[in-house]
Amino acid sequence: MATAEKSSKENKSSRTAAKKTARASGTKSAAASTDARRKRAQAVASKSAAKKATRVSAKDDKSLSDLFEHALGDIYYAEKKIYKSLPKMIKAADHPELVQALTSHREETAGQIEKLEAIFELLGKRAKAEKCDAIDGILEESESLLEDFGSSVAADAAIIFSCQAIEHYEITRYGSMRAFADALGMDEAKQHIDDILAQEKAADASLTELAEDSVNAAASDYDEE
Ligand SMILES: [Fe+2]
Ligand SMILES: [Fe+2]
């Protein structure tokens, strides 16, 4: 065999061998990456199963009665804070009917606190307030509104503005609690909630009436002058 031919044959066979090695190593690395993918998928699946298991056990731990009790602690905290906040608003109010409405609603609030304590008693629990961020926010805002508008002609309108936010907060909370009590067959608690809810709705309606009939008009008259 001529030397050139021999060397060409040798080159060809070494290229073939190299190709074979490359194919083999490609197959190996493809297998390795499939394996890694499978492991990753398994890890994700087991993580999500663990999360699900936590959720399921959390679901098992809490019931509608627990939610009712939480809501009760929440609104108990709110009513106590509202009771403490009202004197400042009463002092800043100018319209005699507004002063009267806020004063009598403060008295109702004292009665509502007692009703909530009666509900705690029905549950066989000691009355305990749970910090409620929602009412804290509303009351903080009403405080700063009072600072900004308290000595202006729009003071009464600002007080009604704040108080209606409070009333609406209370109406949503008592509305939900009423439905919980109904679902739980807690008739006596539901009756107390119904009574309170009626007072909150009436307070809200009388504030609307007062705003529309005189307070807003008096403040806007001043704007027109
Ligand atoms: Fe209330
Ligand atoms: Fe109220």
From TrEMBL:
Bilayer-crossing residues are: none
Q: Where is the composition biased (Basic and acidic residues)?
A: 1-13
Location of the region described as Disordered in the Swiss-Prot/TrEMBL record: 1-52
Q: By its UniProt entry, which InterPro entries does this protein fall under? A: DUF892_YciF-like, Ferritin-like, Ferritin-like_SF, YciF
State the signal peptide span: none
Official protein name in the record: Ferritin-like domain-containing protein
> What is the species of this protein?
Agrobacterium cavarae
